[in-house]
């Protein structure tokens, strides 16, 4: 008599639920149990995307996956051949979650509510008979026997974790996708100001990002800063989250900015600086920048600026330096950089190279993306690949 196969999913979360649903769909005779350590399931999904859940991205305009996956881009390129962003879009729509695409290529439920995704997962797990155990904390890894599988989908894992064999390669987890604390009270006074297209970089490195930038009461946030925090996650952790930051407020090259400043000076010599702002910069920010560059001359007529003053203004607009003094004063990061080293898993199946029938999916892997739906796409793709791999091991799928 053949033993009934069983899979235990440790960690639950987005990847765990999606894996459980896919596995039970592919292999109906499989017993699937999702073990969540907390009382509530899918809490991270509920608060993601401001409570709306950015389920994926169209990837339109992404020519190099490394731009959106600072770690693990080669693996994701390979796995997208198995389960792509287009597959994600189709799956949610077919399972009662209509989606909508925003102008920035982010994909959300039409309901603009993460509960649409949560309700879908709970509905599917009930329909398929997936067992869910809450307040089920597993501190040591069970040993999978024949026809028994273990999938780890925890949010992160430390090198000393009892969930892994001692010899496992693990990249130390550090926070990613967080805003910067900057100790500048005048900057804090501009909280709520948004620059639609800023460029930010970490001087002395090649790390840079661009996009909307938000000024807050503790420093800077917004997509540009969040992306830079992802690119520089390991470096910034090593530096204790203290590092110079350069901001190009104009979002343009120096030559273009210089040409625009010269044009304003020549074409509107009588206009006062506060009354004529280049590149559509917000009024309060423009006042702050001109005061920083020109001091008492910040309210002078454009035509009265000499070459030295125009150069100071140019430098402030394109290379305005600050000191990052830490992360935001509250834990707003939702993504971890680090986890199970990709050398430790089979890239085609995500099964442990060292321990048969042990798989990993989602954030526990050393794969993470920038903001914009890329991390959820990693969860869906890796979860699907694991489910497919287990189903194939049980002879439910062809080669």
Helix amount, in percent? 25-40%
Overall spatial form: elongated
Unreliable stretches (pLDDT < 50, length at least 5) are none
Counted by DSSP, the helix tally is 12
Oligomer: single chain
Number of strands: 16
- Classify the secondary structure makeup into a structural class: alpha+beta
Mean pLDDT: 93
Report how far the terminal alpha carbons are from each other: 25 Å
Strands of the widest sheet, in order across it, are 9-12-11-10-13-14
Q: Order of helices and strands, N to C?
A: EHEHEHHEEHEEEEHEEEHHEHHHEEEH
Q: Give the percentage of residues in beta strands.
A: 15-25%
Radius of gyration: 25 Å
Major sheet size, sense and barrel closure: 6 strands, antiparallel, barrel
Provide a descriptive summary of the structure in words:
With 399 residues, the chain is an alpha+beta fold. Helices cover 32% and strands 20% of the residues. It contains 12 helices and 16 strands. It has helices at residues 13-26, 43-47, 73-79, 85-94, 115-128, 185-188, 223-231, 233-238, 254-267, 283-294, 307-318, 374-393; strands at residues 6-10, 31-35, 56-57, 99-101, 106-109, 131-133, 148-152, 170-176, 180-182, 194-201, 208-215, 219-221, 243-248, 320-327, 335-340, 358-360. A 6-stranded antiparallel barrel has the order 9-12-11-10-13-14. The protein has a 5-stranded parallel β-sheet with strand order 6-2-1-7-16, covered by helices on one side. It has a 3-stranded antiparallel β-sheet with strand order 3-5-4. Strand 11 and strand 12 form a beta hairpin. Helix 1 (13-26) packs parallel to helix 5 (115-128), helix 1 packs parallel to helix 12 (374-393) and helix 10 crosses helix 11. The longest helix is centred in the C-terminal third of the chain and has 20 residues, at 374-393. The radius of gyration is 25 Å and the shape is elongated. The model has no long low-confidence stretch (mean pLDDT 93).
């Amino acid at each position: 008599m053949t033993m009934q196969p069983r899979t235990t999913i440790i960690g639950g979360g987005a990847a765990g639920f999606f894996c459980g649903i896919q596995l039970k769909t592919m292999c109906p005779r499989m017993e699937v149990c999702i073990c969540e350590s907390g009382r509530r399931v899918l809490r991270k999904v509920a608060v993601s995307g401001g409570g709306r859940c950015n389920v994926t991205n169209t990837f339109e305009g992404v020519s190099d996956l490394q731009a959106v996956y600072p770690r693990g881009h080669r693996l994701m390129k390979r796995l997208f051949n198995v389960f792509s962003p287009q597959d994600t879009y189709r799956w949610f729509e077919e399972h009662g979650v209509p989606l909508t695409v925003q102008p920035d290529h982010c994909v959300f439920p039409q309901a603009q509510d993460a509960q649409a995704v949560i309700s879908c997962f709970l509905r599917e797990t009930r329909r398929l008979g997936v067992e869910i155990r809450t307040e089920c904390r597993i501190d040591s890894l069970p040993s999978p026997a024949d026809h028994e599988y273990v999938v780890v989908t925890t949010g992160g894992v430390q090198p000393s974790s009892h969930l892994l064999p001692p010899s496992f390669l693990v990249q130390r987890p550090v926070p990613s996708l967080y805003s910067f604390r900057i100790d500048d009270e005048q900057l804090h006074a501009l909280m709520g100001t948004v620059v639609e297209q800023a460029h930010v970089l970490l001087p002395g490195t090649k790390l840079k990002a661009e996009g909307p930038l938000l000024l807050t009461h503790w420093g800077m946030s917004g997509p540009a800063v969040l992306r830079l925090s992802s690119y520089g996650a390991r470096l910034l952790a090593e530096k204790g989250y203290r590092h110079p930051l350069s901001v190009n407020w104009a979002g343009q090259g120096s030559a273009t900015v210089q040409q625009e400043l010269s044009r304003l000076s020549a074409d509107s010599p009588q206009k006062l600086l506060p009354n004529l702002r280049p590149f559509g910069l917000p009024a309060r920010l423009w006042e702050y920048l001109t005061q920083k560059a020109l001091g008492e001359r910040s309210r002078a007529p454009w035509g009265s600026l000499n070459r030295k003053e125009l150069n100071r203004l140019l430098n402030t607009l394109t290379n305005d330096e600050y000191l990052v003094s830490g992360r935001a004063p509250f834990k707003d990061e939702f993504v971890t950089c680090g986890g199970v080293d990709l050398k430790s898993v089979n890239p085609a199946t995500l099964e442990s190279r060292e321990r048969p029938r042990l798989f990993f999916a989602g954030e526990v892997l050393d794969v993470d993306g920038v903001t914009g739906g890329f991390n959820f796409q990693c969860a869906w793709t890796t979860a699907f690949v694991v489910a497919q791999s287990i189903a194939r091991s049980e002879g439910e799928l062809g080669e």
